[in-house]
Amino acid sequence: KEIFIMRIGVMQPYFFPYIGYFSLIKYCEKWVIFDSVKYIDKGWVNRNRILKQHGLEANYITVPIERTSSKTLIKDIKINKNIDWKNKILGELTIYKKAPFFKEVMALVNDVLSYNTDSLCELNIYSLKVVCEYLDINFNYEVFSQLPNFPLESVHAPDEWALYTAKYFNATEYVNPPGGKAFFNPDKYRNFNIKLTFLTPILNEYKTFSPVFIPELSILDIMFWNSKENINEMLKNFILDEFS
Questions:
Q1: Domain boundaries, the chain
Q2: What pairing do the DSSP bridges indicate for beta strands 58-62 and 47-51?
Q3: Among residues 155, 135, 228, 239, which one has the least CA distance to residue 197?
Q4: In the chain, which end has fewer C-beta atoms inside a 10 angstrom radius, N or C?
């Protein structure tokens, strides 16, 4: 008899996130975009890091947002269209013009930045789809705020959002990044026969114009310098720990 295994990940929608985010997507059969939590200023939802000129430090590419309260949910964040942020980002990425995959990746970025929406969440979801298509990653996703009949009344602690999302989809394994391990009570997951695992990416160095290697930059940095085949090998390089 075949044993059913379904791995699920639940994450906020980040703007061109680092490679570890895509390692998680590649490892999971189902991905849930967690858009029903508060937007945190200076997080990764509307910005990420690329190399700065001369490559000795990192620079931020940012999607500006409209003024908002501290209680606004990610799904309700609007892009500030009064700022010419798209051309600013495209200009900042020209530092990669001598990178071997500059043309292909800039076409991808242009596609994402041309997406017609004032929703930051929708823009980020589209960017994740486009990057996954480029890298041939199966991106089987759902948006949390759009799940019908989700048992919100069952959630009473931070680790239960993922728990009840996994249960909702009948998943057998929930996979989380290494951060936040202290928030999880493995007994809760065990009670629902859900395996709780943590995926820690092993970040390979790769050649850039920088004299020093700066890890955990946006996936765009890796895509400018590496072939799809090399990136997919990097995506499989991680340590998986079961939390018991």
A1: 7-204+217-242
A2: antiparallel
A3: 239
A4: N
